[in-house]
Amino acid sequence: MLLTKPFFGQLAVRLKVTDASEMLPTAATDGRRFMFNRDFVDSLPDEMLDFLVGHEVLHCVFDHMQARGDRKPQLYNAAADYNINMTLVEQNIGKPITEDKLHGGKICMDWKYQGWNSYEIYDDLLKNQKEAKGMDVHLDELNGDKEGEGMQGPGQEAMSEEEKKVLADEIKQATIQAAQAAGEGVPEAVKRMISELIAPKMDWRDILRTQLESSLKNDFTFMRPSKRSGEVLFPGMNKDEELNIAVGLDTSGSISKD
Fold first, then answer.
1. Alpha-carbon span 68 to 64, nearest angstrom
2. d(Cα 238, Cα 87) in Å, to the nearest integer?
3. What's the rounded Cα separation, in Å, for the pair 204 and 243?
4. Which of 20, 79, 90, 203 has the most other CB atoms within 10 Å of its CB?
């Protein structure tokens, strides 16, 4: 996978491989470990094993361990699996695991959800009252926590909010580095997420104010000292001109996000 799908391979090798056969029927991740049932993993051909590893990697990348919020745990976990599995198929990562190997679980796959995120899929599942169970174990279900607050696995205490934040930051940095190193083969959803992470964020009102103020005729004056100069007295700006502004919104749908 490191050679053929370097984005997924680089993120996979950062996970500590942990045998959790006594606790898991299939596999799971907590963001730092790839936990698995040995009999389940041994039953998978290489292509299905690649799919499983890619599945756990994307749980980390999309931060599904924390993204659920107050949504219904089992339904959101299924939505996350739909989201991930469609991405893996689009990226040609291995081969989807057949249900005869999932110990009662199901492979959540539906082309209807191509391009949807986990929140949109969740809303659709909730609206249509669809029951679903994913192919792997999500730790909030494993720990018997109906509200899904737990995040621990074998041999680990539940994470504090600060520890969860640190882990999320670690995964974001690892994702950015893996995408930069891989070049091609990065899922479009991941590219969008990375763009949001690295793009400087400014309030549109601040940008508009700066642009408008730069177009006004003004001069320096000591009658209105600058408030940013601290104890040193510097002149402020004397703005005598006013602008009349009209705002128009294009609602035709012909404009892209760029």
1. 7
2. 56
3. 18
4. 79
Residue 11 CA: distances (Å) to CA of 7, 45, 100, 238: 7, 21, 28, 55
The CA dihedral of 139, 143, 145, 147, to the nearest 10 degrees, is -10
Residue identified by tokens 């177009």 is 215
Contact predicate 155/45, CB 8 Å: no
Q: Compute the Cα dihedral for 46, 52, 53, 54 and give only its sign.
A: positive
Please state the φ and ψ torsions of residue 60, each to the nearest 5 degrees.
-70, -50
Give the residue extent of every domain in the chain: 6-198, 204-239
183's torsion region: left (phi>0), alpha (psi -120 to 50) or beta? left
CB 173 within 8 A of CB 194: no
Query: Residue 219 and residue 164: Cα distance in Å, rounded?
Result: 51
Positive or negative torsion for Cα 177, 93, 90, 121:
negative
What angle separates helix 118-127 from helix 73-90, to the nearest 10 degrees?
Answer: 130
Query: Which regions of 30-175 does DSSP assign to beta strands (E)?
Result: 33-36
Looking only at the bridges linking them, the beta strands covering 236-239 and 16-19 are: unpaired
CB 118 within 8 A of CB 62: yes
Q: What is the DSSP letter of 112?
A: G
Q: Per-residue pLDDT for the chain (258 aa), expressed as one digit of tens each?
A: 888 899 999 999 999 999 999 999 999 999 999 999 999 999 999 999 999 999 999 999 998 878 888 888 888 988 999 999 999 999 999 999 988 887 667 788 899 998 899 999 999 999 987 666 667 776 655 554 444 344 445 555 677 888 888 999 999 999 999 898 887 778 888 888 888 777 766 777 777 777 776 666 566 666 666 665 555 666 666 666 666 777 777 666 555 555
